[in-house]
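Module 6 notes. Inverse folding takes a fixed backbone as the condition and produces residue identities as the prediction. Think of it as a translation problem where the source language is geometry and the target language is the twenty amino acids. Below is one complete input and output pair. Work through it position by position during the lab.
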């Protein structure tokens, strides 16, 4: 089944493109999107400062402004509705910057060393996106013959048994011996489903082993060094976040300086 963003771009899976052997496998939650700032004629304030309008060109995309502009320029946007332009850089690719600078680099890795994966390799709409679409897009849909926005709402369950099998296949294809988990959800929905571990949350892991400490885990008969860390939102202080996990990660970073 096909799904569509506002103004017609089709939703695409965002997966690892470089399939050569890697040193570390990073598992996140779900893919983000390219965000645009929508401005209507004659209005100083944007209609929407960061509307999801297309799938990221690659997993954990860095939000390159020129690339964002090129992607947005391909969208068939009615001129009567104003303009679409790249959103503020803080809305495109913030998690990628955190991954590169505050997770991979301290461990001595670059993107070339990492195989990146998400529980759900597609974006989903959060409540803010849904509200913006209802408020600004739907009232114009009939007049301007706009497409139906069909991307599903952000779920609570990102990974079923079949998806777990697919992730294991990627993990084994990657040849990586180190598995980094970003936040609670990959622990709960992947690791707890495929391995026998004595924790279900990052807090439980921290209480048992300490934040940023590796442990050995068997997955599908293979041994991996597992490192659960906070989600990039927490690590980078992005939007609504936990100051506790931000502080914990800062302490971890200090160990690598």
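Target side of the pair, the amino acids:
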């Amino acid at each position: 089944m096909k799904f569509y963003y506002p103004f017609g771009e089709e939703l695409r899976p965002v997966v690892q493109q470089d399939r050569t052997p890697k040193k570390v496998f990073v598992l996140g939650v779900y893919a983000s999107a390219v965000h645009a700032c929508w401005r209507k004629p004659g209005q100083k304030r944007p209609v929407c400062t960061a509307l999801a309008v297309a799938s990221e060109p690659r997993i954990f995309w860095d939000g390159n402004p020129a690339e964002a502009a090129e992607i947005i320029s391909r969208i068939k946007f009615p001129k009567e509705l104003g303009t679409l332009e790249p959103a503020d850089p803080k809305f495109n690719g913030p998690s990628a910057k955190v991954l590169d600078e505050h997770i991979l680099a301290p461990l001595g890795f670059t993107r070339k060393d990492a195989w990146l994966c998400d529980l759900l390799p597609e974006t989903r709409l959060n409540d803010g996106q849904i509200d913006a679409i209802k408020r600004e897009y739907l009232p114009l849909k009939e007049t301007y013959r706009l497409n139906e926005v069909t991307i599903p709402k952000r779920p609570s369950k990102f990974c079923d048994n079949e998806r777990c099998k697919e992730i294991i296949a990627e993990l084994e294809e990657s040849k990586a011996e180190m598995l980094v988990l970003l936040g609670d959800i990959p622990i709960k929905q992947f690791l707890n489903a495929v391995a026998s571990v004595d924790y279900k949350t990052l807090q439980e892991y921290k209480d048992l082993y300490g934040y940023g400490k590796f442990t050995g885990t068997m997955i599908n008969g293979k041994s991996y060094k597992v490192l659960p860390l906070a989600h990039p939102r927490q690590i980078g202080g992005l939007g609504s976040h936990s100051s506790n996990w931000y502080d914990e990660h800062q302490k971890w970073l200090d160990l690598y300086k």
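Reference fact for the lab report: The beta strands are 24-30, 33-39, 48-55, 83-86, 114-120, 178-182, 215-219, 222-229.
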